[in-house]
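Sat 14:20. Reprocessing the chain from the morning session after the first attempt stalled halfway. Input below, unchanged.
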Amino acid sequence: MTLKKITLILISLFLIIRCSDKTASKEERNNFEQLVKDYERCQTNYEIEYNDKPIIDVKNGTNRPNLAGQISDYLKKNCYDAYAGNWDKSNVKRTYALVDSVTLPKRKLITELQNTLGLNFPIITALKTCKSCNIDYDITLVIGNDYK
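Finished this time. Tokens:
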């Protein structure tokens, strides 16, 4: 084979690979755009009323592996913006919501969250000073051993 043919083959392969990468990127962009549209269409009643997507921080206060992740995934399927992690302790007896203040909108959000999860849990009002808390979340939901 001549050097000219080898060079031509290499250039052709480069162009084919490069073009297929662009197709994948376009497909990925389309998938991402669809996910964004789905996210924007999916709204809780709270979000519709207050034009604010609530952020729920789900913390696992039990020894059950990935419990907060499973609940977070369930909440996401029900239009909540939810995140998961572990609580400071793994022996929490009862599930509760930790908020910095109880306003009427936040009370409505908690009631909606209770209905979504099918669980009645108390609200604890406290400054979020725990190691596991993130002040940017609307509610920190600590899952206890009572969660089935």
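The CA atoms of residues 94 and 139 lie 16 Å apart.
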